[in-house]
Records
---
Amino acid sequence: MRRPLGRGLHGLGLLLTLVFALFPFYWMVSSSFKAQADLLASPPVWLFRPTLDHYAAIWADQKVTTAVVNSLVVASLTTLLAVVLGTPAAYALARFEFRGKADLWFWFISNRMISPIVLALPVYLLARQAGLLDTYLVLVLIYLTFTLPIVVWICTDQFRAIPPDLEQAARLDGARQFDVFWRIYLPLGAPGIAVSAIFSFIFSWNELLYALVLTRRDVQTAPVVATSFMSGYELPWGKIMATGTLIVLPVTIFALLVSRHMIRGLTMGATK
Amino acid sequence: MSYLALDQVVKRFGAHTVIDGVSLAAEQGEFVVFVGPSGCGKSTLLRLVAGLEEVSAGDVHIAGRCVTDVDPAARGVAMVFQSYALYPHMSVRQNMAFGMRMARAPKPEIERRITEAARILQIENLLDRRPRELSGGQRQRVAIGRAIVRDPKIFLFDEPLSNLDAELRGQMRIEIARLHRTFGATMVYVTHDQVEAMTLADRIVVLRAGRVEQIGSPAQLYDSPANTFVAGFIGSPRMNFLTGRVAGLEDDAVRIEHPAVGGVLRVPRRAARAIEVNAPVTIGLRPEHLTLAEAPARLALAGDFAENLGATSQLYAQAPTGETLTIQVPGRESVARGEALQVGFDPARVHLFDAGGQAI
């Protein structure tokens, strides 16, 4: 008797969690297809005649398309730089002993513990001082502060799992340090590098707070534009939801496609 | 100077000394085996020769050149690792070519050497496979092939057979011996398996706790072990040890006393080490030198149990002083627990060691 009951409770728990996690997502997507009247109906309507009006509206809005391009540029540049800078750092952390290694490692992990809002104002002041407000560069730099640790963290773990014998065999084969990194560690660490690149891209793509604080007009990213609809005298829920869906959908599809690798990336280092 | 020479080599990791002043020499074409228990420093010593570890003191010479501070790749050595250390993302051909590609050798030359090595090792049909598509034995051949292609001055083997099953280990052992004969190359081989050491080596270096216990041919180590450690390590089953007393001394013999001998036994001396009357002495007897047949000397033992190995049997018996002895006899002998056993031996086959464990 206890077993079916336990299983039932387990299923119920899972269902509640799923509803909790997915309902906002469902509400956003379904709202993006509702006409204005259905959107504002109270009580809410569950069955409605879908419309693509909001999508047509945002497609016509150059602000949105520019913002999507900006998001693409910032997220791609950040990811590229995070991988280019992070993988050699991860190799060094995985294979060499040097002074301050433990502190550096702690720093990489611990800067995920600081709430971004704490740093928003100082970062804003710094960026203004340096004349970097509303540039790609400032977003890429600030995003690197949290994507670089992700790359270093995941890749260090991946590189540590590569048997040291391979490096020694390569050294005996005449490979220099860079050859070892380039020809042995990078190809063998590819799964971890790919996972960390995916995370970097998703985090950069979704980031709102710094984009909101550090951009004005030229390089506003998609999440910023979505929230910008909220200002003014009306709340165009349809446009906001359609933009939100457009932002989230590609990343969600991508994440579902590579979910197996992502779970592997998340559990890297959890077991030895 | 010898082809490979180690001169007072020391290796420390922090305060811990792993290799403690090792000197040895190997001639060109010689097969030298480093043998010893786990943690004795034999792999570290090999890695010092390869240049994968830096020596803390002392020098390494290869082919007349001091290579102590020379990069591993420039030492002219190739190593076969215990784990094979094949590059998993490369095909067998790419694995074998890697070293020559690093040295920027011309492509036709690389291809020629790979084809030749593959022919010798009979792995021609595996050249386009990845390491994960190979069996343990095939991987081992590829690892050896990768070493051959580099045409090194010295081949280094770090416990290359320990990941293989018993049957394959036997085959590969023969193959390595054959390769040594074919190439006439200098080979240094690390193992903890004394059967591999005895069958492969021209010379064995027995190591313990970072020090050389004895260097010699397999026969020398077997016939004249320098101390109880070497005596116990070389030979299978292990040598039996009894603790007796020196009853008297002659010019070329020692008279010893032990309750199992039933009086005094005259044993010819093997080494010129001084010993005094009444001093304790360790009596070493190899299991295969004991017999149930008639012999010049006898031990009175109490039987314990027997292990049947097919062609031979191993009998276990206790001396009156409590030590357990192993007796290896042909055929299928059995022994009852507590049964009185008269075990024969030739006093000339007895090894004697002083209280410090050194041969006398």
Note: The interface with chain A takes residues 50-52, 72-73, 77-79, 81-83, 85-89, 98-99, 102-103, 146, 150 of chain B (CB under 8 Å).
---
Amino acid sequence: MSLRPLTSPWFHGPAGHEKIWLGCALLWCFVMSLMMPYWHFRGKQNSTGEAYTVAPVAYLARAEAFVKSNRVGTWKNQASNNPLLTELPLVEPAPGGDAYLVARMWQWYPALRLHVGETYRLHLSSLDLQHGFSLQPLNMNFQVIPGYDHVLTITPTSRGEFTIVCNEFCGMGHHLMSGKIFVE
Amino acid sequence: MASSSHNLAAPGTPGRVCGTTGLHVCLDAQRFIKLNAVVGIVFLLLGGIAALGLALTRWQTVHLLPAEWFYRILTFHGLNMLIFWILFFEIAILYFACTTPLNARLYSRKIAWVSFLMMLVGAVMTDTVIIGGKADVMMTSYLPLLAHPGFYLGIILVAVGTLIGVFNFFATLYVAKRDGAYTGSVPIVTFGATAAAIIAVVTLLHGAIVMIPTFTYSMGWTSQPDPEWYRLIWWGLGHQSQQVNVCAMVSVWYLLSHIVLGARPINEAVCRTAFVLYILFINLASAHHLLVDPGVGATWKIWNTSYAMYLAVLASMIHGFTVPAGVEIAMREKGYTSGIFGWVTALPWRNPAFSATVLSVVIFGFLGGITGVTLGTQQINIIAHNTLRIPGHFHVTVVGGTTLAFMGLAYYVVPLIFQRDFIGRGWARAQPWIFGGGITMLSLGMSFAGSMGVSRRSWDIDAQGVYGPAAHLWLGVLGIGGVLAFTGLLIFALLCVGTLFFGAKIQDRAMTDWGTPPALAGSQAGSLAHDHYATKGTMALSLVFLACFAIYYFANWKALADVWPVR
């Protein structure tokens, strides 16, 4: 009885249907546990959390240097009516090289131009609050935290215009915070 | 405070005998069950009103609230629902579970007062700060976002008050054993509540560790804690507190299926082991929120994601089998034996406590559990983190699961503890279906919009210019589901409050039955006690569940494989 103390001996091993179900459930848990290490070695999408300590000021200096030496033009926003996203420097990192994205209230800086099939080390960090790197319409999401230089080793495999949305609440302009990545 | 004996049957002890169940009820416990339950339901109603505003804002066509109020109300909603409503109601459940089933008297009235008042003051303080516009930081208040110190202080007061209430629970267990109030082993309901209480202690300690330095920082006394450290420890509070809910909810499943049908766990040893698995393997769950974070490595993420080997998931899969299996056995013993599912059609679907239990099991398991394990898979989190898929998951665990189970419990708590029969019984019978249906719609809307990349905690999606008509459609489903769920919640709150004032009084008589299936002629209780193959229907349903789980899980791996390679 579920509401009164148990007095008779109640300890029995599982039997019958319950034993079958326990076996199925345990096996399934085992499969799920193995999937993650399997994907870590054989799969292509992993979050390894590679990161380095960096002061926001130092990170901004690195990003500015990156923009200065790799700038190929200016991207002007002609499509949407977002008042916080009018234009950004358009920057093309060297294939295999480093690319920097600065997250700050409420902008992703600068716009990047990447090449399909090339691999980049994409650095993400914030100058103020926590932000969320959400690449649309692909729907890839990573956390961006001030003081942490979060490095994604990323290989674009599809061409087109991609929008970076912020998906970590960062104040009243949060829903306007966006950026651009172009893949050619 | 304490009389010489904590046995309720001892002379001079303030207790009464329940006119419905014949069980002893401690009058001290009864008072605090009433207080905590009523205040809990008030916070549920506040959080529900906030929820209506949120649903009608994210429904992009309606877009009700201005941005500032959307974020403010979102903070308010999270804290009132996930912390205040749940903790107050759980304290009520703990006070019940340590007294009546053990024939014991509550350890201390004074401690119960201190606990209750601290929680109440803390909750009101936090709510006041939020509504005053001094804490637009979301429930998680991620540093370096900073709120008014009163926000953190209120949460600390609620946490400490809850810890004091949990202490009263453990003290009652101790004196009940010491004074011989009962013999044998505690029943499964008390056992499950004890597991919840143990996890609550670990959880609330995490809360203290993270909130105290944040509070002192907000006062300007200490330097800013590291934001990643904050996330790690905060989720030791934020995620584990939901495991307290799971334990409490599962205990309520056992309790209600027993009260309504006389169901019992088919195997006490297995059920209890499952509760122990929760305690042992749940405490790493904060990792679920750091799966795409910098600074924590893949090994750490993978190990903590599975809590070593998904043994806490195994525990839920055990309860998800045992509860319906107990119901099936009880029904078959009553004589409803036709076919595999004959017992299902004979179940008391018009009994709101029972329909709430079944809906809670199904919504929690099929929707909440499957999505939770999948989203919490380390790599799959890349295509889910901070999208609407996350609230799409936890609204079917903590709302469709826990809150609905607690609502079901209220359909017996109010008559048995407040001793008044429910008013509006027709509305009560429909309420779990309206609420459960609404929450299911809300969750589906969130999950599908999230799959299309729509982020959570965002006032507007149109400025981004990347979301098409399909995403807008699912946000509409979210909105309609939210309105429906709010309607169910409002019916519930009005019925409860109305009953306290206008319900027919029950004095020494049995409460009016909500409806229980009668035993058929020739049936015999306990006749299937040794038949281990009598749960064919539950076995079939469980295998359907496993198939759904596997399909959803591998479909998500496929979706992950389609995005850009990243390390």
Note: Chain B touches chain A through 112 residues (CB under 8 Å).
